[in-house]
Design goal:
Helix content is 85%, strand content 0%. It has 6 helices and no strands. α1 (2-44) runs antiparallel to α2 and α2 (50-93) packs parallel to α6 (160-211).
């Protein structure tokens, strides 16, 4: 029982740590975004300074991609810790003494994350984090398009509608890029978790066969 309580305490500390990391990432991101938007609003729309909009947009796009990758990287262990806490609470509420083998299975967060089939549905708090970063990133994509339309020596666009098309095109390209990053990281994460989970299950099976 002492080992079970120690596992619960360690998992709770890990969960709090990951939550703090996520909050810190988002806080720094929002503070930087606010500064970039303010810079664009103050100077990016002035005649002859359109390049500021292009620079702000590019910085914002790359920043959004980086934050998206960081949040997705933290999501798997965060979700698994949440599941592990629930499993440990169930075991602690049970009067029977849990075995070490049960603890090993609860500790394997790769399998926990896959078995629970965590999705990116709108009910999950992580989805809102990702949506906010995605929406902000596409906004920076529009700013990039606005900045490009101001560089007449690079793209001679004088008509209003052609300028608008350029803004929408850059916004769409940024959105597609963010979606591609999202699905790439999600797919690779699931593949790695499946490999780790299979390895752990084979190891446990060898132990069980040996005990048998």
């Amino acid at each position: 029982m002492n080992s079970l309580r120690a596992e619960y305490e360690q998992t709770w500390q890990d969960f709090r740590h990951r939550t703090t990391v996520q909050t810190t990432i988002l806080s720094v991101y929002f503070a930087t975004v606010t500064g970039l938007i303010y810079t664009f609003a103050q100077h990016g729309t002035e005649t002859g300074k359109e390049w500021i909009g292009l620079l702000v947009g590019l910085i914002g796009v790359f920043l959004s991609i980086g934050v998206l990758a960081l949040l997705l990287g933290e999501r798997r262990p965060w979700s698994a810790d949440l599941t592990r806490l629930e499993r440990l609470e169930e075991m602690l509420s049970n009067k029977s003494e849990p075995t070490e083998r049960q603890l090993e299975r609860v500790s394997n967060y790769h399998c926990l994350w896959l078995e629970e089939k965590y999705s990116f549905g709108l009910a999950g708090s992580f989805t809102w984090y990702l949506l906010i970063v995605g929406i902000t990133g596409t906004l920076f994509g529009a700013i990039v398009g606005f900045g490009l339309t101001g560089l007449h020596w690079l793209i001679p666009l004088d008509h209003y509608y052609t300028r608008l098309v350029m803004v929408i095109l850059c916004l769409s390209m940024t959105l597609i890029s963010l979606i591609a990053v999202f699905y790439t990281i999600k797919t690779r994460t699931i593949e790695k978790s499946e490999e780790k989970c299979d390895e752990r299950k084979k190891a446990l099976k060898r132990v069980e066969d040996g005990d048998g």
